[in-house]
């Protein structure tokens, strides 16, 4: 009888203990890159990257705070410990790999030019010599243009949305960006006079795999992110998010 009473008392004590708090992670994205990350009409941060980040956090059983930050500050924030993860359609270039570790890919895509509809059917460096080519600074597209299009005038914007505004306003002849980001623009009222120019660009400099950035040395967190990517692929969350924003598979 004494043992039973003792066990019952211990059980009550354990039940009274507070539940272990969920791990808290700060996840950064850009916020100006539709349909991947942007603010809706109510000012809420949303998009493919945002929903993927939330699904990954659920799979890791972590409580996440999602924040938007300028593109050129994302890796700075990771290195300074302000962010735990960056989910921002980021390719793992050698320069970035020197500053952060990267997960397995979570989507693939291509880069293309966009410009006035029908005006630029060919987009080789010779075809675009002398033209104003815009893209976001510190992107793989920027490095590609600077290396491959030396006879064009390269305009580097704060982000891809500013580059597209330059196109709208006639300050740039063409914009180079991710095909899905361009699709969002071309389907908007602002993009009605524009279209893709030429074909998707096949070049080693334009890595087409988006990955999640983790601070250097956080190997356990990186492994958990990779497992979570597999989990959301298997449980159907990934496909649901994909269909919400894009009419074909990105994986």
- Helical fraction equals 25-40%
Global Rg: 22 Å
Low-confidence stretches: 6-20
Number of helices: 9
CATH topology of the largest domain: D-Maltodextrin-Binding Protein, domain 2
The best one-word shape is globular
Keywords: Signal
InterPro entries: Solute-binding_3/MltF_N
Pfam families: SBP_bac_3 (PF00497)
Protein name: ABC transporter substrate-binding protein
Structure description:
The protein is of the alpha/beta class and 251 residues long. It folds into two domains: 21-108 and 209-245, D-Maltodextrin-Binding Protein, domain 2 (3-Layer(aba) Sandwich); 111-197, Periplasmic binding protein-like II (D-Maltodextrin-Binding Protein, domain 2, 3-Layer(aba) Sandwich). Helices cover 35% and strands 24% of the residues. The protein has helices at 2-16, 48-59, 74-79, 94-97, 140-148, 160-168, 179-186, 219-234, 237-245, and strands at 23-29, 38-39, 45-46, 62-68, 85-90, 100-102, 107-108, 111-116, 132-136, 153-157, 174-178, 194-197, 209-215. The strands form three sheets. Strands 1, 4, 5, 6, 7 and 13 form a six-stranded mixed beta sheet that branches. A five-stranded mixed beta sheet has the order 10-9-11-8-12. Strand 9 (132-136), helix 5 and strand 10 (153-157) form a beta-alpha-beta unit. Helix 2 (48-59) crosses helix 8 (219-234) and helix 2 (48-59) packs antiparallel against helix 9 (237-245). The chain is globular and about 55 Å long. The termini are far apart. The model is unreliable at 6-20 (pLDDT under 50).
């Amino acid at each position: 009888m004494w043992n039973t009473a003792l066990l019952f008392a211990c059980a009550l004590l354990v039940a009274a203990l507070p539940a272990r708090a969920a791990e808290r992670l700060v996840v950064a994205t850009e916020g100006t890159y539709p349909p991947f990350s942007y603010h809706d009409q109510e000012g809420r941060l949303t998009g493919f990257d945002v929903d993927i980040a939330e699904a990954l956090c659920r799979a890791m059983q972590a409580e996440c705070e999602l924040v938007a930050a300028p593109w050129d500050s994302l890796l700075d924030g990771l290195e300074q410990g302000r962010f735990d993860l960056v989910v921002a359609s980021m390719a793992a270039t050698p320069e970035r790999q020197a500053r952060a570790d990267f997960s397995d890919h979570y989507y693939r895509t291509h880069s293309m030019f966009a410009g006035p509809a029908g005006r630029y059917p060919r987009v080789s460096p010779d075809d675009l010599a002398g033209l104003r080519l815009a893209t976001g600074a510190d992107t793989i597209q920027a490095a590609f243009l600077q290396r491959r299009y030396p006879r064009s005038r390269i305009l580097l914007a704060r982000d891809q949305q500013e580059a597209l505004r330059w196109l709208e306003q006639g300050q740039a002849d063409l914009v180079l960006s991710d095909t899905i980001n361009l699709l969002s623009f071309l389907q908007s009222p602002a993009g009605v006079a524009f279209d893709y120019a030429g074909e998707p660009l096949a070049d080693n400099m334009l890595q087409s795999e988006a990955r999640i950035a983790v601070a250097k040395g956080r190997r356990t967190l990186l492994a958990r992110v990779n497992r979570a990517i597999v989990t959301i692929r298997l449980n159907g969350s990934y496909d649901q998010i994909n269909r919400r924003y894009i009419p074909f598979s990105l994986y």
